[in-house]
Design brief:
Blueprint (H helix, E strand, L loop, with lengths): L1 H27 L11 H22 L3 H22 L8 H28 L1
């Protein structure tokens, strides 16, 4: 069961990463206009973390300990950015950006908890 759970987590991580890379890259390249104010730093962060998420997905799939570490880093990074968006940049960032970061944060917390559960059970 642990193996199946980790494969599902790896797949979700990969899909989230791919979505972030594709969507963010389209906006950065000017191919897509989301229809609301965007911030280059936030889109760049999302694309970068999308690539990191793809790497994490591969490592989790291979059941490497570095995958669990990377998942933890991604989770903390997303929560940190969410807190910044909700406090420092709250009047300057689109509601859609905050909602997207809430989604990413919640999903990554769930993924991380599944990974940790699998890692703890095997040790």
């Amino acid at each position: 069961m642990k193996n199946i759970s980790l494969k599902i987590v790896a797949t979700v991580a990969g899909i989230l990463g791919l979505m972030a890379v594709i969507t963010g890259s389209r906006v950065l390249l000017g191919v897509f206009d989301p229809g609301y104010a965007t911030h280059i730093w936030l889109i760049s962060y999302n694309v970068f973390m999308g690539i990191v998420s793809l790497v994490a997905g591969v490592l989790i799939w291979k059941e490497k300990a570095k995958g669990a570490l990377l998942a933890g880093i991604i989770t903390v990074a997303h929560i940190t950015v969410l807190l910044l968006l909700g406090t420092v940049f709250v009047s300057d960032v689109a509601h859609q950006s905050i909602m997207a970061m809430i989604f990413r944060s919640v999903v990554w917390v769930a993924l991380f908890l599944v990974i940790r559960r699998g890692v703890v059970k095997t040790q």
